[in-house]
What does this fold into?
Amino acid sequence: MNEIISDFINYLLNTKKYSTHTATAYESDLGDFISFYARWSGTTPMPDDLARIDTIAFRAWLADRARRKMEHKSTARALSAVRSFYKYIAKNHNIQNDAIGLISAPRVPRKLSKAIDPPQVADMKSAIGVIDTTHPWIAARDWALVMLLFGCGLRISEALALRQRDFASRPDTLRIIGKGQKERIVPVLPAVNDAIAKYIAASPYATDVNRPLFRSVRGLPMTARMAEKVVENLRNYLQLPDYVTPHALRHTFATALLAGGADLRTLQELLGHASLSTTQLYTRVNMAEINNIYAHAHPFAHSDNNK
It folds into this structure.
């Protein structure tokens, strides 16, 4: 069983090009299911047993996760991991099981992310200079990262995948490979190019243009956790709300464009969303802001005016 799961994880990493973080999460989810089934059935499942697991067992696993107070979003992802695993073994190991297709994922409420006020983003630049005093080039790196997330709407993984050569000759656009190897082209603002250029000029690792653009103090590729820590430190220093995260910078990019008149299809392309329904969440955010303004500004918005 361990060998099949290991093959599946290698398939996700090398063929599907999933991130290490996603592959690790899938491996953990599969381990959770296999461990539960071993306890539930009283026997450690062998590869051939995978074809005989029925809907009762799958639903019992979901119920067990609910008893453990696992979030619906986490369980939905775990079920997706198990489904992907079954598709893989059907194709590569001739192990068929139709029962998994009959299981519905728990309904996950789609939460609205919160945007950061643009002045708060501007405040981050001076804050970075105060926080990163030991290595001035690190301050330039952190501001370049913030500018990419906010100025181009990139995901952390997309920003960290960039190479120094991608910014040769101050490009007007960047070719980004996003989730599911989906390619998109995003514009690069002059302010973003300026931040990147200053970082490259200050970096002690700028000679190797084929290595990752963002590097750690020791010259290793910057990790997603390091990037999250950059924004976390800024949030704590500026005493900003907990929702100020790297993803919130991407979200702020999207809401700013929508407020400025960008249509949903354009926004979908810029963000690299596979589904327009994901992009449509931003219209709900924008309408919430509009309704708030309306409620405070319209002369008939208050009940006293209607008496």
Q: What stands out?
A: The mean pLDDT is 82. The domain at 2-102 is CATH 1.10.150.130 (DNA polymerase; domain 1). The longest strand covers residues 173-177.
